[in-house]
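Standup notes, structure subgroup. Blocker cleared on the protoporphyrin IX containing FE input:
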Amino acid sequence: MATKYININLKVWRQKDAKSKGQMETYKLNQVSTDSSFLEMLDQLNEQLINERKEPVAFDHDCREGICGMCSLYINGRAHGPDTLITTCQLHMRTFKDGETIYIEPWRSKAFPVIKDLVVDRSAFDRIQQAGGFVSVNTSGNTIDANATPINKHDADRSFEAAACIGCGACVASCKNGSAMLFVGAKVSQYALLPQGKIEAHDRVLAMVRQMDEEGFGNCTNTGACEIECPKGISLENIARMNREYLKASFS
Amino acid sequence: MALTGLFLCLFLVGHLIGNLQILYADPHQFNTYALFMTSNPAIKALSYLTYLSILFHAFDGALLTYRNVKARPVGYVKNNASANSKISSRNMGILGTVILIFIVTHMMSFWAVMHFDNKMPLEKISVKSQMAPAKDYYLTQSPGEYIPVDQVAADKKEAEASRKAFYIKDRTEFIFTGADVKKADGYKDLFKVTVAFFKDPKYGLVYTILYVISMLVLGFHLYHGFASAFQSLGLNHPKYNAAIKAFGIGFSIVVPFLFAVLPVYIHFFLKTI
Ligand code: HEM
Ligand code: SF4
Ligand code: FES
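Run returned:
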């Protein structure tokens, strides 16, 4: 496919720091290659801004290949943009039309405060993970190799699928309630399905859910938006599994 | 939310089966059923559970909605929510509020009249014979007892003044004026109240339309709510999900539709008896 160049209008959320009030700013960007990724397009915008001696737009990114979960962005009203099962770094400019206006906003959630421009503080996820997302391992010199424990294929697969969550926060961003249940559901499920995770199963789900509530995330009402916007295709089944684990732990 | 929601779904089925008896167009059959529903102790216990469920469900729903609004203090300038979720799932609070308003007004129109209104009519029948002109009698709960309407006064004072044989006490009791002894209990004529409500010359059509709209709202609430409740309870399994969803959609269409049929039937098709 031949490379095409398009001209686009950008409406970008600009906010000096956590305390300032932000607003949408409009930029015109010409000669954007349809082969470039969305983040490369933002790099191009920043070069233009630096040349104009303006403050570049701050946005999160790291691996740029869909595995780290650093990139974010609410693009044209959807987390990680219009395509499904991809992160923003995997979104290509060929998805957009010449002359199109593209809205770019940060994740919006009480638990994800904006640090600057499009960068939000997702450390709430870290604290949820720290509250219970771990397993005990014998380190006294006779550690058992994990592969020595047989696990049935079905559970291993479901656990692996849950472990695919990269902690990007698109689920929270797209949920009308700002709920983190898909993320927490994936983290709880990943361990709950494996024998190694059984030891802390009871305390884990209670602690992680408590931390989730303390961070100010909303409550799940099963709209299903998260599952559709999740770049890793994490299933709602994980939320149901967490609900089961939670009920089980609450009554025992 | 899920437990009360599903309990209310069961309630809807029960209530619907009761209401559908209107289609028999037999006042006495319906009033007998209404009497059973207001006097049987097991049904009474069930009805208190229903009141509590509605209150808890509405309160919990309001709290849930409030907390979820607070979880996103700054909204999006551009949000394409319809790309990832159904409109009914995003408006459960509003749909629920409309249903709550409906339930309150609905209970004022029928439940409160049945339980407290002193003007609640008692069921009468007209007996025709070849010898005499038609005469109205009150039906009573004692088999074989009929009380002539022209012999019944509204209260004791009126009975004494007019020398009528009976007066009505505690809304349903026919009392002998002289001896102050109860003769029998009448039947509250809920059928008549219901028909009069939806056939009201001034507002009957408005009531009918509002009722149908409310059932539409209930349908949307259940369209999301039914399957949602299973997910909330952790009941999600690839083997059964499709069946739960399909049943939920069927339920959300059939139940409100059948409820809505009744006022339409009464207003447009039922011949006044
Ligand atoms: C007969 C009446 C009703 C029935 C059968 C019913 C049924 C349900 C069901 C099954 C759910 C799903 C529960 C879950 O996902 O865990 C639900 C949710 C909900 N209901 Fe009701 N409901 C009724 C009346 C009401 C009323 C009166 C309100 C009043 C405010 C209300 C407000 C809500 C709210 C806010 C939710 C929210 C959960 C969500 O967004 O998914 N409902 N209802
Ligand atoms: S569940 Fe999906 S959307 Fe949510 S944090 Fe994990 S990868 Fe991102
Ligand atoms: S930058 Fe790592 S997933 Fe997008």
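Discussed briefly. Helices of chain A lie at 38-51, 123-132, 153-163, 170-174, 181-192, 201-214, 225-229, 237-250.
Next: hand off to the docking folks.
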